[in-house]
């Protein structure tokens, strides 16, 4: 039933899938399967750091790591135990600040029957199970979506797909690169089906049973609402775990929310997974320069709305240079100085913590970890991704909780 095992193998086997993409002239991130530490280091320096490193015997992102320099790479490879011909390591080019795009689709005999294109709020590098997914996309060019659909068509035809499939792509500077294609339903299938009001699993089942199926008339351009799929985490139950998102999956559940626009949908989803709209005090430790720039407009908006921003050293300096007034708050490693970040978190004087991990220097690791872990332990809402923090801030500054419309699913068109 459905797609043949041979074609499933062509999609799942990295070498075969990569060769097929090359034949179709479809771009992909550069990668190599390597069997010695020297070769891994040489390839990483050739494509340029950061790189994504994955021991060959793991599933679903487990033990994968994004490494930023040679020292980190060597440290990770010592953790990966054997690197040999029996245990090769896959090293992939990691494209920073790339948008991740997902396609959930059903094909019959290699022809596309129905499809849904969605985008992640976070840049690529967060596992799709942990990402905040938006459908229909709000920030993709129509030309990009047209090209995504063309690639989905070509891959469906090449693999002669009959049934469901999920494909993930990277988009940057209007260039698209395919990460992977899974010939199965994904966790976003029921989500996009609910928003589209087209049951993709029903269609896929009919295809696999060999029944005649009609292509649905509806597509994502007809939608007047926005859906958000947001992850739910259980870091509070995992003592000492660092609540940072990465390429391995950490979420333990998710919610699907619908709004009349993006702000309403993102606000509803954040409230649904346990966040609260801050009353007064927000702590921002914004990490690398690109995150500082991402959060600058949000900081201006917060000040306009009368919020107090407490910022750690680098963030305080950057915001001041760009005309945003904040209160300097000291690191956990400076316990004698006031106001101190840990003290304010433990006294519940902070309503929202935004802490963006910066690098792996020991001091940065200890300070950032202590702020994040204490936020979780003292039940203070914590966001560790700049793009998600920015989206949440824009939403609650534009509308209040009481302005969220309460509608049944049937009322959304």
**Tally of strands:** 16
Strand order, biggest sheet? 9-8-5-6-7-10-11
Provide the CATH superfamily of the largest domain. ATP-grasp fold, B domain
CATH architecture name of the largest domain: 2-Layer Sandwich
The structure class reads alpha+beta
Name the helix and strand elements from N-terminus to C-terminus, one letter apiece: HHEHEEHEEEEHEEHHEEHEHEHEHEHEH
Q: What is the count of structural domains?
A: 3
Radius of gyration: 23 Å
Query: What percentage of amino acids are in beta strands?
Result: 15-25%
Q: Identify the overall geometry.
A: globular
Helices, strands, pairings?
Elements: H1 5-12, H2 14-24, E1 31-34, H3 37-47, E2 51-55, E3 65-67, H4 70-79, E4 89-93, E5 99-108, E6 111-123, E7 133-135, H5 142-158, E8 163-172, E9 175-182, H6 189-196, H7 200-208, E10 226-232, E11 253-259, H8 262-272, E12 281-285, H9 289-304, E13 308-311, H10 313-321, E14 327-328, H11 341-346, E15 352-355, H12 362-377, E16 382-383, H13 386-398
Parallel strand pairs: 12-13, 12-15, 13-14, 15-16
Antiparallel strand pairs: 1-4, 2-3, 2-4, 5-6, 5-8, 6-7, 7-10, 8-9, 10-11
Helix pairs in contact: 1-2, 3-4, 8-13, 9-13
């Amino acid at each position: 039933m459905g797609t043949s095992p041979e074609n499933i193998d062509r999609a799942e086997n990295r070498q075969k899938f990569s060769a097929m993409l090359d034949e179709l002239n479809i771009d992909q991130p550069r990668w190599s399967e390597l069997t010695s530490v020297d070769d891994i280091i040489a390839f990483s320096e050739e494509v340029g750091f950061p790189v994504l490193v994955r021991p060959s015997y793991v599933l679903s992102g487990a033990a994968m790591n994004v490494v930023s320099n040679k020292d980190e790479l060597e440290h990770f490879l010592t953790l990966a135990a054997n690197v040999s011909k029996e245990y090769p390591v896959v090293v992939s080019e990691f494209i920073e600040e790339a948008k991740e795009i997902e396609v959930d689709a059903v094909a019959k005999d290699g022809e596309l029957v129905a499809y849904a294109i969605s985008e992640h709020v976070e840049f690529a590098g967060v596992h799709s199970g942990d990402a905040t997914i938006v459908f229909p996309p709000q920030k993709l060019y129509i030309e990009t979506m047209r090209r995504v659909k063309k690639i989905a068509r070509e891959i469906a035809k090449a693999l002669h797909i009959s049934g469901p499939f999920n494909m993930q792509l990277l988009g940057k500077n209007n260039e698209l690169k395919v990460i992977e294609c899974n010939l199965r339903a994904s966790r976003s299938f029921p989500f996009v089906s609910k928003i589209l009001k087209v049951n993709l699993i029903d269609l896929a089942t009919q295809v696999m049973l060999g029944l005649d199926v009609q292509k649905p008339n509806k597509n994502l351009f007809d939608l007047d609402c926005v859906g958000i799929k947001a992850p739910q985490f259980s870091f509070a139950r995992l003592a000492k775990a660092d609540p940072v998102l990465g390429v391995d999956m950490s979420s333990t559940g998710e919610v699907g929310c619908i709004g009349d626009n993006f702000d309403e949908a993102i606000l509803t989803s954040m409230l649904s997974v346990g966040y609260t709209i801050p009353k007064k005090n927000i702590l921002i430790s914004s990490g690398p320069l690109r995150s500082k720039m991402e959060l600058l407009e949000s900081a201006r908006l917060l000040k306009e709305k009368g919020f107090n921003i407490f910022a750690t050293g680098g963030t305080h300096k950057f915001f001041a240079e760009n005309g945003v007034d904040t209160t300097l708050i000291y690191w956990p490693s400076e316990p004698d100085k006031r106001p101190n970040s840990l003290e304010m978190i433990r006294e519940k004087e902070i309503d929202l913590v935004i802490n963006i991990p910066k690098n792996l220097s020991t001091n940065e690791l200890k300070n950032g970890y202590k702020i994040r872990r204490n936020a979780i332990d003292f039940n203070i809402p914590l966001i560790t991704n700049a793009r998600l923090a920015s989206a949440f801030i824009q939403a609650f500054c534009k509308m209040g909780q009481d302005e969220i419309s309460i509608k049944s699913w049937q009322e959304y068109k």
